[in-house]
Amino acid sequence: MQRSQLDRRTLLAAAGLAGVTVLCTRAHGSVKLSPALAAPGEARTLVLLQLSGGNDGLDTVVPFGDDAYRRARPTLGLRQSEILALDDYRGFHGALVQVRKHYDAGRVALVEGVGYPEPIRSHFRSYDVWHTADIRGRDAGDGWVGRLCDAAFPDQQNPNLVVHIGGNVPYALHSTSHPPASFVNPRAYRWAGGESETEAYEQAGGMQPERDEKQPKKRAGESSLDFLRRVLADGQSSSEQVRRAVAAYRTPIAYPANDALAQSLADVAALVNGGIGSRVISVEMGGFDTHTDERNRHDQLMRALDAALGPFLDDLGRSAAGRNTLVLMFSEFGRRVAENGARGTDHGVAGPMFAFGHGIKGGRYGVHPSLEKLDDGDLVHTTDFRSVYATAIERCFDLKSEKVLGAKYPLIAFA
Amino acid sequence: MLNTPFLLALLSLAVPAPTVAPQAEPKRENASADDASADVERIWNARNVEHLYNRAGFGARPAEVEYAQRQRPVAFVKQLLEGFAPTSDPLFIDIPAMPARRDFADRDEFEKEQNRFRAEERRVLTSFAGWWFDQMVEAKHPLQERMVIFWHGYFTSSTRDVKRTAAMIAQNELFRRHALGNFSELVHAIVRDPAMLEYLDNNENRRDRPNENLARELMELFTLGEGNYTEADIKEGARALTGWRTTDDKTGSYFQPRNHDAGVKTILGQTARFDAAGFVDLLLAQPACSRWVARKLIVHFEGVEPDEARLAEYASFLVDKRWEIKPLLTKLFLDPRFYRDAVRAERISSPVEYLVGATRRLGISVPPQILWLGAGQLGQRLFDPPSVKGWEGGEAWITTSTLLGRGNMAGMLIGVVKLEDVLREDPLEVEPEGEMMGGDMQEGGEMTDDPPSDARARDAKRAGKRKVDLGAEMSGLQRLTSAMYFPRINLTARMQRAKVAGDMQIVDTLADELLPVPLSEPSRAALLAFLRAERGALSLEDGRLLTAGVKSEDVLRRLAHLILSLPEAQLG
């Protein structure tokens, strides 16, 4: 009952979004009409996958049906045989075989032409906009996930609530009240003493007075020493939970062994299924800044991405927690429409954004930007990325998205 | 196709006068300061001396504590303000010139040159950062280096936005020149500083299209604090700052009259034809300004908020001294309230203070780039503050990840933790070239080169199955440590020199030498239990631990690792 109402609302919102309603193209004639993300009350996990460096959207979702594409990309343009056509206008890059399989199964939502007004072509500043969901960037305060946690989990201090797997923590996760646990490798998320030192280390941290789970920050009157003891104890339990979850996780799905992203996503699957209360998990794949030799490099990137995402989405389908997971994939900007003189592309603006999950309504959303009506050689975005965030915020965390984003953005019907 | 480099002579520091005579009579500022310093004389014990070293420097070695205790507080504080010894020679840096597109017929060539230029910029920044960390560890003038970091977090600019090493280094030089100088002069200089003009978009601030960024931060973060101005003041202030811009290569700044709005502005109720200098003077004349600066300094050094009476006292003192920083800090360090319990125990050290402090207390020599990258991993990347507000500091330094990370870094410095063991993986990462590659600054480029890719693949096989993207910073750190770091440390000799042998003596001595604050009872019990168990495992009686050669040293090092991982080690 409630679900069908919800459904209507989201569909209407999507229709209003860009003046068109795009229906999903499910291969299986599924009878499920409602999003299958768990009902409010059940935990859902949001996974953020950042493609760093500016992914070339036109070489990811290729508008082969537009002559302007071939004109703009005389050496970089993909041949028809290198494209997995979705219809007679666009198709996935030929390496995205598994993504295509999941797309056909309704687990991939493609949102076209995503960007923001007055786009910035600096990597760092554009990241800041995506990470804070605010044009002002870092001047706006904490990252958007930090603000999301303030709104959704004001009293919670589970150190594993927000997790980043990778080197540098994205600013999106920057939060003074809900700092993320972060590690390159969950097996290495530990204080690296031997067994007997660890016992003493924990003893030194275990001497704090009665703990209060609901107190996120240093309490009034708490001494710095007691605060540090508390974080030490939290760190030991957080680290142990993470490592246990990863060690205990068994999956028949084979992830490519020698690929960083695939291994990180395998760890994400372990955390999602580990019951340790992680609600936002972030991972990053680098190398998308293809100013030169884009043909080879972007092909490789697409192959690696497909090889990692394919098994990950298979894996998520195996459990309720996995099926309740929403994955958002984004990049700080797309690239310019025309190739440069070095068989590459320079920093551009809008690009496609992807949502993945077993509980979403797959298909195509938004409007592909025109390749003719350009702004100084760049695509003009048709959907604000904050519409995608807003959808994730409302569907995964049962929050009014404007509480986090500061303004209302039209929701998109994929979830 | 080398660019003609130009030489930038940096850090033309005034060399401080040789160490002052310990018994020099203090200049009698006024009666109350004199009373206060007499009070400090009464509490001039090892604990308080170390406290002062922790806050005004980077921690103390035992001999330094003894030295300070032999001085009178007034004389010692004067040395702190002037420096203990002449500082190292200024670093001469060969800044590469930025390639211009017009000099290249071929785009490929231009891009290659750009990549080379960026790599060279990173290399220069890395060497400069190394030099800076050396100054901190050597601590010839530790307070000056503390103040350079303070101003860097106060007047933030980041290499990530400025993207010009020369400008970042010149700003650092500005902070060093004014570190303990005059706040008014520093604010006047910072609104003309190329890195700041670039960072806060003043190149975009023109008569026909004002950009408010610099005016806003100048009021909100640099002088007055929120609530002491209006949005209209920002708009008008921005007009006063129009016309100041950087040269194209960002190594200099100049005033461009045709972009300056010379009209009448009304700022904070005053109406005049304000220019940048006039606007800054107006801000300095606000009562909120001295309160803002005094509060920032007190909170930085004490770690807790001052009460209203004390804030008012320090703010008016700063105005009386015409914005000179030295008298203010002298007053602070000779103020008995600086030594009260709530101040001594409460401040959480920054990652830089933690790592430099640990290095100094351990008495080891560490390639300074390791400290730079390590502090970055722990949340304080010098030259790259997280936002215009700088580093939040205090308890925000501590998360579960950074706390256990601090312990692991200390273990790495001591040699009981190998980064590759912590990571248990090979730092394999396909690093693309171009702007993003390796971040803007993280690479320890000149220290090691990336191994060729087939060697990497071979290493990957040896290391096992996983290929993990560590991020450029961690990869650089790991390469540095595995290639060039061997801890030169002999804790056995150190304990023997201190003439200690029993478990309790060893724990107390090592903790005293390695910790910035006294060991708490619970931690002491944990350390003792550990040491007893380890000694037991070696079948040695209490008092005989140091007789087992390399095994004794191993136990002592693991004890040291434990000590530097304690909650107490994070204070100071």
Could you tell me how far the N terminus lies from the C terminus of chain A, measured between alpha carbons in angstroms? 17 Å
Q: Rounded to an integer, what's the Rg of chain A over CA atoms? A: 22 Å
Largest sheet of chain B: 2 strands, antiparallel
Q: What structural class should be given to the helix and strand makeup of chain B?
A: mainly alpha
Q: Count every beta strand of chain A, where a strand is a DSSP E run of 2 or more residues.
A: 12
CATH architecture tag of chain A: 3-Layer(aba) Sandwich
Oligomeric grouping of the chains: heterodimer
Largest sheet of chain A: 9 strands, mixed
The total strand number of chain B stands at 6
CATH topology of chain A: Alkaline Phosphatase, subunit A
Shape of chain B: globular
SS strand fraction of chain B: under 5%
Low-confidence stretches of chain B: 1-29, 423-468
- Name the shape of chain A in a single word: globular
Strand order in the sheet with the most strands of chain B: 1-2
- Percent in helix of chain A: 25-40%
Care to give the gist of this entry?
The complex is a heterodimer of chains A (415) and B (572). With 415 residues, chain A is α/β, with parallel strands linked by helices. Chain A has 12 helices and 12 strands.
